Amino acid sequence: MSWTLGPSELDDLARGAAILGTGGGGDPWIGRLLVAEAMREHGPVTVLDPEEVADDALVVPVANMGAPTVMIEKLPGADEPVAALRALERFLGREADATMPIECGGGNSMIPLIVAARTGLPVVDADGMGRAFPELQMETFHVYGLTASPLAMAGDHGETCVFDTGRDTVRLEDLARRVTVGLGGGAAIAEFAMSGSDLKRTAVPRTLSLALALGRAVREARAEHRDPVAALGEAVKGTIYGHLRVLFRGKVTDVERRTEGGFAQGRAAFTSMDGTSGLEVRFQNEHLAALVDGEVVCLVPDLVCVLEVDTGEPITTEALRYGQRVAVVGIAAPAIMRTPEALAVFGPQAFGLPFPFRPVERILPV
Amino acid sequence: MSWTLGPSELDDLARGAAILGTGGGGDPWIGRLLVAEAMREHGPVTVLDPEEVADDALVVPVANMGAPTVMIEKLPGADEPVAALRALERFLGREADATMPIECGGGNSMIPLIVAARTGLPVVDADGMGRAFPELQMETFHVYGLTASPLAMAGDHGETCVFDTGRDTVRLEDLARRVTVGLGGGAAIAEFAMSGSDLKRTAVPRTLSLALALGRAVREARAEHRDPVAALGEAVKGTIYGHLRVLFRGKVTDVERRTEGGFAQGRAAFTSMDGTSGLEVRFQNEHLAALVDGEVVCLVPDLVCVLEVDTGEPITTEALRYGQRVAVVGIAAPAIMRTPEALAVFGPQAFGLPFPFRPVERILPV
């Protein structure tokens, strides 16, 4: 069931991962270029299905940490995530058997592929968010009892830092965030080192192959002059996500965005083409809530995705601009992300939103 | 030449170390209590003269890092510096043969004694500042080519963090300071792990025994109704410090103090008892400059020490209060702290002061 991922699939993968990134997770094109270069030098990457990973294997997820608004100016490097992996291996006194993404996103789905290409390690087709989230503890790994500590961080001048806060992942997030800011707003991390059996119990499975399928669906629909948004809806059906709803079509009329405490925070306003209806999307790096004319239509952890209406290309929060014509869709999060334990960590209340969670497919029945 | 330090000497040592701490280096009484408790439980501590340390021995200095204004409310613990030492040993893959202070100060001269008592390691009679300074790179270890990295930090909930910034000690200071703030404003560190031969080349020697001698001189003068300030002058003679000058006698009339970026920053104003003359002392955790009626009389790295005029007890910057009657003295820094390399790192310009360094004994010839 393992498969090989080569340079020709990176465009589709990056596009699909950016859709699942719900406005965050890093810029899709920079990450793609870094993977392409690593693959050119070292060859394609082996992707393992989670069920193929040995129970006693050591899996080390890697990612970039930082505000996306910073990452598009301070480009992530290819050395840092490998340095973070090596620092964590040194701390653990054991070498990794595989790497893995911690979240879906144009950037953070790519980082493990860089590491995989450069080290020869396989990458596991799974992650710890099933989308992108702004904070380290917002991972299914954490929800289901794993600890992010020890966490290794690497900066672009060869700096490394290994944090160990025991079971206190919120404290870890705070300390690591401070060092990220000190390293210029972005750094590579390796964390949540786990066994194969823990991986199978806690990860959101097959999100790399889902991203690839979503990205491919958009490209093929475009080539065949079909509606890319409808094609996405078809691609989601039959996966553990299952449901896609078109929340709104219109244009960007206002974006309020500030970089605060290492996050890109704010809200975006959209107006329907006939001017009669409005959509508000709130974000903290990632989209958290969508309200149409003041009524909640999609709430975190369900995915709010902003797409160019004609092409289906995802738009990250830092790329939102006045006048863009968009379709905003809601995608149901899989069951593992909607349990009471999961909602306590990354549901609406965890972000200070005053709305109780309701599944998007129940707010908007077909 | 090694000697044993027991609980009965701690009062003198803490007093003398606080004098050398030039207003910073931590509160002398909290540190003393922690050492006394550790000695009560584990016995006295062996102090090694630097010349006794084997060239290939591993010496690991330990300290607390943080704003003294925070440390008097968030008391340092006895577990953290041992945890920092152990984290650094783990990173290095080697056990320490001795510990050492990184600076003189009521707090930071005590931390290695806690570690020594609890681990059974000897402590070396030397340090890396010959006084106290606010930033990590302001150490003779750094001036003479050693690297502070790797640095291990430990917080009061068992958190550890190991930083490695290679030769960039200024970057290390910045990252470690950020984490210190995240840990509540204070944390224990182990850094500048070095060989015995590097220790002999770069450390300011015999500052523990000097602190003990200064503290004893003040106590004995007081018991014998002699002037404690004059007794201090006698005690400094014949050491590598050599010169003490009385800069001012008067009372505290104003203190401007703010905790900013993890530092206690500000200035204190003093007025002579007859009201005709004024002294200004500028500080960043430690005293940096003394100006009498606008004229510089003592400049960093020379030591500006504020003492209660009647008792000779040192007053830290956070303990300065309106109306206190004080003697302010200047003590010449030893030659190893006045080289061009040393002044580039912790001379007046390094603190943004617009005064060129001049030795206190030349500004104020006897």
Considering the chains and any ligands shown, give keywords for the structure.
homodimer; 366 residues; alpha+beta; CV3147-like fold; CV3147-like; 2 domains; 12 helices
Question: Could you characterize the architecture of this molecule?
Answer:
Chains A, B: Residues 9-164 form the S-Me-THD N-terminal domain. Chains A, B: InterPro entries: S-Me-THD-like_C (IPR048350), S-Me-THD_C_sf (IPR024071), S-Me-THD_N (IPR010318), S-Me-THD_N_sf (IPR027479). Chains A, B: This is DUF917 domain-containing protein. The structure is a homodimer of 366-residue chains. By secondary structure, chain A is an alpha+beta fold. Chain A has 2 domains: 3-205, CV3147-like fold; 229-363, CV3147-like (Beta Barrel), CATH 2.40.390. Chain A has helices spanning 10-20, 28-42, 68-71, 79-92, 111-119, 140-143, 169-182, 196-202, 207-223, 228-236, 340-346, 360-363; strands spanning 3-5, 45-48, 58-66, 98-101, 123-124, 126-127, 151-154, 160-164, 186-190, 194-195, 204-205, 244-260, 263-271, 278-284, 286-292, 295-299, 303-308, 325-331. In chain A, the strands form 4 sheets. In chain A, strands 16-15-14-13-12-18-17 form a 7-stranded antiparallel beta sheet. In chain A, strands 3, 4, 7, 8, 9 and 10 form a 6-stranded mixed beta sheet that branches. In chain A, a hairpin with a 1-residue loop joins strand 14 (278-284) and strand 15 (286-292). The radius of gyration of chain A is 19 Å and the shape is globular. The mean pLDDT of chain A is 93. The A-B interface holds A 87, 90-91, 157-166, 168, 171, 174-175, 178-179, 181-183 and B 87, 90-91, 157-166, 168, 171, 174-175, 178-179, 181-183. Strand 8 (160-164) of chain A pairs antiparallel with strand 8 of chain B.
